[in-house]
Amino acid sequence: MAQDIERIVRCTLLEPLQELEERTSIPVLTAVDDGVSLEVMRQYEQNPYPRWTIDPLAALADEDSIGPEAEIDDSLQAAGSILIAGCGSGQHAFEIARRSAKAQVLAVDISLPSLAYAQRKTREAGLTNIDYAKADILKLADLGRSFDHIETVGVLHHLADPEQGWRILLSLLRPHGTMRVGLYSETARRSVASVRAHIADRGYEPTIEDIRKCRADVARHFETRGWLKVIESADFYSTSGCRDLLFNAVEHRFTIPRIKAFLDAQNLSFLGFETEPWVARKFRAQYGDGAQTDLDTWNAFEAANPLAFRYMYVFSTRRV
Question: In this predicted model, what pLDDT tens digit does every residue of 18-42 receive, in sequence order?
């Protein structure tokens, strides 16, 4: 009982107070004054995302179950400097810093509460190769730094102009540097887009009350409205998660041809998608290993398998 009380006090009182103190030490690299950026910033200040407590890599290590999917990528091993553009509450940046211990990581975001949470968790874990800063991706062109590797997963599709933000990040990438990108799939997000249209029709606001009403709507009508994949998402069942999933201030969705057009225009080589095991097995069985970097083939595959990228397109590119 005493331990439970201590845990509650720590989580609800002590840690939030520590995070308020952390905010004062986080540098501000750019202003945030773009209208869309301000809207997104307010969302993630009110509802930081993701909410996490356990170091995922440490948990896997304790279970002695780290497999090939957790191996350090060659580009991370070789990188001397890494930028995490849009680090949120720090889970992603935390993992990258752990996996690339020899690199210096800069993690930026527009939400100060998220950054404070990330910095506290990083300090508690004893990680010393990561720095946090507040910045808007759209204003990073004048940062005055370049990086061997850049990660921007689940971020660009929340910008007013995703391609503009992408080009700005590329301007910070060193010759032959690598970039890992995560973007929503238009095909895989059809059910989410349908619920977002429902939210707009009903005039629901991103408040706790309206989020609960929306969840009740979806739970009642998921079978008839094609919303099964929405209620299967773990994010659906928490306020912050549901706001990120369904009530996000800005959401763009991509297609593989749109990605291909951008990569071609920027003279970037496509290094391959990260997929679920069933997707990789089915793709190889149908097309062989030689098609792994052929975006036209992947487009045909997604057309036949609409949920192949149900989480996101996550892929790596390299400057030619």
Answer: 777 888 899 999 999 999 999 999 9
pLDDT of 59 higher than 50: no
Of 57, 56, 99, nearest to 78 by C-alpha is 99
- Checking DSSP bridges between strand 147-153 and strand 173-183, what pairing results, if any? parallel
The size of the chain, in residues, is 320
What's the CA gap between 57 and 21, in Å, rounded?
27
pTM score, two decimals? 0.89
Task: Tell me the per-residue pLDDT of 215-235, one tens digit each, with 9 for 90 and over.
Answer: 999 999 999 999 999 999 999
Q: How confident is the model at residue 129 (pLDDT cuts 50, 70, 90)?
A: very high
Neighbours of 54 (CB within 10 A): 10
Residue 102: HSE in the Cβ half-sphere, 13 Å Cα cutoff: 9
Cβ 236 vs Cβ 251: under 8 Å: no
> What's the rounded Cα separation, in Å, for the pair 241 and 49?
7
Instruction: Determine contact, residues 260/309, Cβ cutoff 8 Å.
Output: no
For residue 16, what pLDDT band results from cuts at 50, 70 and 90? Answer: low
Cα–Cα distance, 181 to 312 (Å, whole number): 9
- Taking the C-alpha atoms of residue 230 and residue 250, their distance in angstroms, rounded to an integer, is 18
**What is the residue whose two structure tokens read 């029709």?**
201
